[in-house]
Design a protein that fits this description.
The chain is an all-alpha fold and 190 residues long. The radius of gyration is 17 Å and the shape is globular. The two termini are 18 Å apart. 41% of the residues are buried.
Length: 190
């Protein structure tokens, strides 16, 4: 079950990241924010991702990875909530993009580290590959549903709320995760 909890969390991650990467510019244009700000925001996410991923990986070396991962998802949800509450503009967009960039791919070292910690490294490539499939399924739904929702309802707001709620769900799933190594009697690969 804990493998599937990690998979569900990574599915939420894919949903959030693909939604933002694909639909943030369209949302900002709807809100009257110039296209140049949206483009700069995506670049800021990419730049902030570098220290964010490194820093979160290092935090996962010092503290329980499941706790750091839970906090990452909780902080993403908080950033999404503020993004919905604060009026859209250049400063609020840049603040949101910095926050999301710092949290962007920090899930990768934490999730792969948890997989190695729980299941060992022998099958890590296979296990992370399976978890990454979940990430891509989430990404598909973040992009596809984002387009469907905006066409159907004329607003991205339901999608931002869905991303926020999925982040909260991922935080809740990871906090109590049993991260002890699995013994051969409980999991035997063929």
């Amino acid at each position: 079950p804990r493998f599937w909890w990690l998979n569900l969390g990574f599915t939420a991650c894919g949903f959030q990241l693909a939604l933002i990467a694909t639909h943030l510019p369209g949302h900002l244009l709807q809100e009257g924010v110039p296209a140049r700000v949206a483009a700069a925001g995506i670049a800021v996410i990419a730049l902030a991702n570098v220290p964010g991923t490194y820093g979160l990986g290092r935090l996962g070396d010092r503290f329980a990875r499941k706790r750091v991962l839970s906090l990452l998802y909780l902080l993403r949800s908080a950033a999404l909530a503020l993004f919905l509450i604060v009026p859209a503009g250049e400063a609020s967009t840049m603040a949101f993009c910095i926050a999301m960039g710092l949290l962007w791919l920090g899930t990768v070292p934490l999730t792969s580290g948890l997989l190695a910690q729980m299941f060992g490294v022998r099958w890590l490539g296979l296990l992370f590959g399976l978890v990454f499939i979940g990430h891509q399924v989430g990404a598909f739904f973040g992009v596809w549903l984002g387009a469907w929702v905006v066409e159907r309802f004329g607003s991205y707001e339901p999608m931002w709320i869905a991303a926020l709620l999925l982040g909260l769900l991922a935080a809740v799933l990871h906090w109590p995760l049993d991260d002890r190594p699995v013994t051969a009697g409980r999991w035997v690969p063929s």
